[in-house]
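One-letter codes give the sequence; the fold follows as tokens. Both lines appear below.
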Amino acid sequence: MSNLSLAVRDSSTMLRRNLLHARRYPSLTLNLLLTPVMLLLLFVYIFGDTMSGGAGRDEYIAYIVPGILLMTIGSTTIGTAVSVSTDMSEGIIARFRTMAIHRSSILFGHVVGSVLQTIISVVLVGAIGVAMGFRSTDATVLEWLAAFGLLALFALAFTWIAVGMGLGSPNAEAASNNAMPLILLPLISSAFVPLDSMPGWFQPIAEYQPFTPAIETLRGLLLGTEIGDNWWIALVWCLGLTLLGYRWSKAQFNSDPK
């Protein structure tokens, strides 16, 4: 078999392994889903009338759901960091290295499996948003496909970052703590309030981070708001983080003596 065929075959095997783990131990994914779901319920039903500035709860749920969907990606990928760190600390990675399998398939199995789980999580949270009253405004099929592509690319980028965090952590608890910024960053973005309502000194911090342009792009695709330059800034962030996470993960994986 060619090197590519071996890589695809072994990556498929590792993907099945990770999906079986996720099916047998769903508690981690469900626990990570609680954060975006609870925030959605809290901000819509408790703070919705106040946060909307008088526009109404229906207007605010339309505003908040795109940010919650991207927060779901950040939250779910923490499970990837924990899973990778667990594999490293329990020695299964060292075992795999003694076997005749393609080395990169170990990482790719984690990444593809995590992206699939993340997309499923996003769909579940999106369904909860729809049940609460979220509706897309005149989005075309092309815009829906673009929105799905953005979410998938964002999930891929942060999954690679999470893999790097997992490889660099001594245990699962440390991996979970190291990946906490993936949940905290959406809280200091335009997910819950517009940028112009923030203090002037804080606005650049919220504006020039990966979540804000992605949130504004997703809002534009689903709700018809102005996208401006946000689409290409979000794309650059996604591609840059994917490349950074891949190279970081590969360097750590290849240099690990285990």
Observations:
- The chain has a mean pLDDT of 86.
